[in-house]
Each structure stands twice: as C-alpha cells, then as structure tokens.
Fold this sequence. Notes:
The structure holds two protein chains of two kinds.
Chain A: E1 3-5, E2 10-14, H1 18-31, E3 35-39, H2 42-52, E4 56-60, H3 68-76, E5 87-91, H4 96-105, E6 109-112, H5 117-129, E7 134-136, E8 141-143, H6 185-194
Parallel strand pairs in A: 2-3, 2-4, 4-5, 5-6
Antiparallel strand pairs in A: 7-8
Chain B: E1 3-4, E2 17-19, E3 30-32, H1 34-39, H2 42-53, H3 57-73, H4 82-102, H5 105-120, H6 129-144, H7 153-171
Antiparallel strand pairs in B: 1-2
Helix pairs in contact in B: 3-4, 3-6, 4-5, 5-6, 5-7, 6-7
Pfam families (chain B): Hpt
Organism (chain B): Stappia albiluteola
Keywords (chain B): Two-component regulatory system
Amino acid sequence: xxxxxxxxxxxxxxxxxxxxxxxxxxxxxxxxxxxxxxxxxxxxxxxxxxxxxxxxxxxxxxxxxxxxxxxxxxxxxxxxxxxxxxxxxxxxxxxxxxxxxxxxxxxxxxxxxxxxxxxxxxxxxxxxxxxxxxxxxxxxxxxxxxxxxxxxxxxxxxxxxxxxxxxxxxxxxxxxxxxxxxxxxxxxxxxxxxxxxxxxxxxxxxxxxxxx
Amino acid sequence: xxxxxxxxxxxxxxxxxxxxxxxxxxxxxxxxxxxxxxxxxxxxxxxxxxxxxxxxxxxxxxxxxxxxxxxxxxxxxxxxxxxxxxxxxxxxxxxxxxxxxxxxxxxxxxxxxxxxxxxxxxxxxxxxxxxxxxxxxxxxxxxxxxxxxxxxxxxxxxxxxxxxxxxxxxxxx
Lengths: 212, 173
C-alpha cells in the first residue's frame, strides 16, 4: 500500500450526523489532510462545492433535504470541470442494490459504514492513483463503471448496444446533445427544499441478496 | 481536456463518449518513499487520532440511542405511521452506521436488522409494533449494559433471535 502525503488536497465532507462528522474529520485529519470543509446537508454541501471546488468529496447517502444521490446527480450534471470531482459515497446502505444504485448515480467509490481509517485511506488513494475516465451516455455521466472487460455482458446498458440507446455524436465526434450543465440547479434545489425528504425505503429484495 | 472516442467504423453514430478528467490529482499529493515513508504511516496516524477521540464514544452512543428512544416515545398510539417509520428508520440507520466505529457492533447489528424490517415491510401499518419495540429495547439494553464485546453471548443470542423473528415475519407476508 503506497503512502501518500495529502497536505495539498482539499476535501469536502457532506454528513448530517454531528458525531459522524466529527469522526470523519478526525480520521481525515489523522490521514494528513489539512483542508477539510464540512457541510451538514446536501444543500449546504452543494453551496460549499460551488465556492470551494474541492478535489474530493465524501458524501453521506442519507441526508435530509437533499440526499447523497441527489447531490451526486446535481454535481455530475453540472458544468465542467467540477463535474469530474471524485465522490466517495459514505453509507450504511450496504445491500447490493443500494451499492449499484449509488454507482449508477455516478459515485467514484463507495465506503460502507462503519468507517475505518484504512477504508477511507484506500478509497482516497484509489481516487488519486487510479483516476478513472468518465463516460457520457444518454442516461449516465460518471466514472467508467467498467472495472474490467466482460465480453459476455449482455445487459441493456452495454455500450454500442441498442439502436434506440444512441447518444448522438456527430461524425466529428463533437457532442451535439445539449450540455447537461444547462439543467437549472437552482430550481432542483428549490424543489428539494420544498418537500420533506423521506427515508430510502420501499422496494424489496431477499436477504439472500444482502451484502451486509 | 482529452476526449477519447470509441474506435468504431467511420460515420457510425456513437452511443457514448469517454472523457479524461482534466485534473490529475496525483499533482496534489506526494508519494512518500524511503525515510519519509518510514516516518509517517497515514493509517496508523488516523487510527491514533480516532483512539484519542474514543473517550467520547460512550456518550455519543448514548445520545444516538436517546434519539431512537425519543422517536419511539413520540409515536402516536395504534398502527405505525409512515412518518413514524421514517423517523425511526433514520435514528436506527444512524446507529447502524456508527455503532461499529463507536465500539458497539452488536447494537449496530440490531439497529441494522430494524432498518431491514423497515425497508422490507410496507405499508408501515403492517409492521408489528412489538417487534420494533423489541429491537429498540435490545439496542438500549446493550448500550446501557456496555455490551461492547462482539463475543458477548447474551447479546449475540439476542441479535440472532431478532433476525430470525424478522425473517420469519417477512417470509410469511
């Protein structure tokens, strides 16, 4: 495991629970980070993100007003170059379906609670030393979800697959689709503030599929 | 920014674009080698920092359990409401996420099982109050009794029993 000095790295943490915030701050400080900004919910985090342009974000998945999934989508759909910021989802949702959902929102790494010094360190190191390319399709923008090549994959989201799944690029390979950054972030935030955030509960899956 | 394009026959419309992030984060860090690497171990330093903070963990755990108990006490009589379920879920989920780090892994397991019940039974009114109460009582007792050891036989038996009852309830629906 390589040893890295993080003193030049700026990190933003979005976490609503005060004890968890203190835990994360302590662990990150211990790892050698000197620029650590903390936000108490998704809205706070998004404002801090726009002001501070952090190098890496740690985002709690369950937060009031704007949760981690909503915050991640907002950032990924935002303007370049900040939309490329590595996002580490910190979550107690460790079931496989939750992990896949977080990945499909565009997170870079997933850190399941309970957190540990080694767990955080390895994910930050991975974001830095194994920086992944981003992929943009009609329905996704985020880090390349392929960690390895699987020639037998036949899922619906295979690139170069269905003709109705085309993300139109012109022959010169310039993007012709309206830039995602045109999405009105302010109106998205306003609608989130207006509603009461609910817990992520509902769909069912058997405990056999539980990765806990 | 470098944009890589997939290698496909000319004029064929692509359904994806690969973009290399503009910033190389390696420029923001220093890879420690030799004496520097021997002098500083970031993981050990972070664990030591956490250890210095650990004197506060019991109090924090007490506060988290207090939040769960308050949410339970504030529930109206009768079947569980969606609002009540959401409030309890948030409190239990916070405990599930923190208890391991704070030194109460078995209390975290019980809270996790309560989250599992909430996630897999809908509507909220179908969730037996007595089963929710048993979970909350178990978390409260484990923290009050200082059941930190993951090998605590009584606590382990309680975790297993609650998981079995929950699974049985969900499977019979």
